[in-house]
Structures are given as structure tokens and as C-alpha cells.
Design brief:
Blueprint: E1 2-11, E2 14-24, E3 29-34, H1 40-48, E4 55-60, E5 63-64, H2 70-77, E6 80-83, H3 95-106, H4 111-124, H5 140-152, E7 158-162, H6 170-187, E8 190-194, H7 198-204, E9 207-212, E10 215-220, H8 222-225, H9 231-237, H10 241-247
Parallel strand pairs: 3-8, 3-9, 6-7, 7-8
Antiparallel strand pairs: 1-2, 1-4, 4-5, 9-10
The structure holds adenosine-5'-triphosphate (ATP).
Organism: Hufsiella arboris
GO molecular function, one term: ATP binding
Protein name: ATP-binding cassette domain-containing protein
Length: about 250
């Protein structure tokens, strides 16, 4: 479980996160949603240590990450998998080398052990035998799947995904959502997904944290979201005529 307590973040005098608290449970797809500039990516970066919060705490299963020094944080970093926006694969490396990268960085495993893990992860994301391809030879959806394979290579307890569906067609987006959902349940990972994709919200949002202007405006489940009277959330989720009409049936 990851708990964030009263997270604040300012850049110069501009406060972009104003006291966010939430609990993200293992085995659940935890989604952070909100309009552009609402602070989603900044919150995610504060959680993994890419930004230091101005104040507040990030607790990983009882361990206060915010109080740790660089060395102490390494242990938690090893337990974190990240799927970055745009997949962030190394273009000069093959699929296999990309997935092996964290194993080379963080483990003392033999080459055979690492190969076993690479092949297991590739199989898990339905990319068996694609080891030798380079990122330029993959479709957008395949790149995301390689990104997921790399993110789970270290068998993470925590998985962070920053807009996993950006740039994908609706059908491929659902494939990626389903994969994240399956992996989360199967390995009881505490998964946190930053998204603006309404299909994801409705499809896999077991816990949804809605940010607006750097503040927590609402949290709840995808079942509850259609029945909220929160004005800002309604305007965000049901902005399109299609979603407005769909709401009646939810
Ligand atoms: N490194 C930075 N320095 C200064 N301001 C920043 C920095 N990073 C983010 N911001 C500001 O913080 C606010 C929140 O940005 P953030 O990227 O977290 O929003 P977001 O909800 O992820 O947006 P989007 O959906 O467009 O990616 C914005 O006003 C942005 O300009």
C-alpha cells in the first residue's frame, strides 16, 4: 500500500499541489485523473522521488520515503516499476536489452537467469520471440507492451504508469488497460496510473483520485463516478455529448 499525506509542491512561488492525501491499495488499479495542468504528473514524480515535495509524506508499506536519504531510497526504487509516457525505450537497444536493463542495473543474476526473466516478461505481454527487434520496428502498442515488460522485469511491488494509452487507438488502449489490470491483480501490485482516458476510468478505475487546480476534489470508484454531484468532476468526465448520454445508462 502507498499512502500520501498532505503533499504540497511549489515551483518558485507557484503552488501546483495543495495538500493531497490518498491511499493506494495493492491489487487495485489506482487512477489519478484531472485536466491538463491539474498536477497529476507532478504528484506522480513526487511519489517516486523525481521531485521533492515541498512538504508532506509518501509512505511505502509503512516506510516513509520522504524521510530517506539517497542510499535508503535505492531499496524502494528497486521495488518500483515505471511505464513512462511514450514508453521511453532505448532506441539503440533491442527489445531484449531494454527489458534486461534494470536487471543489469540492480541484480547480480547470471546471463541465463536474466534471459529467463526477459523471456518470461515478454511472454507475459504477448511478445514472445520479439527479443531481437529494435523499438523502431515496433508499433506504438507493442512499444507500450515492451515498456510494461521492462517495468515488471524486477517483479515490482509498485507500478507507476504515466498516460499508458497516449497515442494509441481505442482498441489497443483497451489491450494495454487489460494487461495492466491483469498484472496488477495477478502479482498484487500497487498500481498507479495517470490518465485522461475515459475508457480507462470506466473500465479499470477501482480507485480514482480526481485533481483539479492542484487540489483533491474527489475520490471513489468507477461505479460511484457516474453518481457524483461534484461539479468539477462531472464537467471533466462528462464533457462530451457522448459521455453525457452514456451517463444516463450507468
Ligand atoms: N519543473 C517544473 N517547473 C515549473 N512548473 C512546473 C514544472 N513541472 C510542472 N509545472 C507546473 O505544474 C503544473 C502542473 O503540471 P503537471 O504536468 O503536473 O500537470 P498534469 O496534470 O500532469 O498535466 P497534463 O495532463 O497536461 O500532463 C502546471 O502549471 C505546470 O506548468
Amino acid at each position: 500500500m502507498i499512502e500520501i499525506i498532505d503533499i504540497r509542491k511549489s515551483f518558485d512561488d507557484h503552488e501546483v499541489l495543495s495538500g493531497i492525501s490518498a491511499k493506494f491499495e495493492p491489487g487495485d488499479n489506482n487512477l489519478i485523473i484531472g485536466g491538463s495542468g491539474s498536477g497529476k504528473t507532478t504528484l506522480l514524480k513526487c511519489m517516486v522521488g523525481l521531485h521533492e515535495p515541498t512538504s508532506g509524506s509518501v509512505i511505502y508499506d509503512g516506510r516513509d520515503f520522504t524521510k530517506m536519504n539517497f542510499e535508503q531510497r535505492i531499496e524502494i526504487r528497486k521495488e518500483i516499476g515505471m511505464l513512462f509516457q511514450g514508453s521511453a525505450l532505448f532506441d539503440s537497444m533491442t527489445v531484449q536489452e531494454n527489458i534486461m536493463f534494470p536487471l543489469n542495473m540492480f541484480t547480480e543474476q547470471s546471463f541465463e537467469e536474466k534471459m529467463d526473466r526477459v523471456n518470461f516478461c515478454l511472454d507475459r505481454v504477448n511478445l514472445k520471440d520479439k527479443n531481437k527487434l529494435f523499438p523502431a520496428e515496433l508499433s506504438g502498442g507493442m512499444k507500450k507492451r515492451v515498456g510494461i515488460a521492462r517495468a515488471i522485469a524486477m517483479n515490482p511491488k509498485y507500478l507507476f504508469c504515466d498516460e499508458p494509452n497516449s497515442g494509441l487507438d481505442p482498441k489497443t488502449s483497451i489491450v494495454i488497460d487489460d494487461l495492466i489490470n491483469e498484472i496488477t491483480e495477478e502479482y498484487k501490485i500497487t498500481t498507479i496510473v495517470v490518465t485522461h482516458d475515459m475508457n480507462s476510468v470506466m473500465g479499470i478505475g477501482e480507485y480514482i483520485l480526481f485533481l483539479h487546480n492542484g487540489k483533491k476534489y474527489w475520490d471513489g470508484t468507477n461505479k460511484e463516478i457516474a453518481h457524483t454531484d461534484n461539479k468539477e468532476l462531472n464537467e471533466f468526465v462528462f464533457a462530451s455529448k457522448f459521455m453525457e448520454a452514456a451517463k444516463e445508462k450507468l
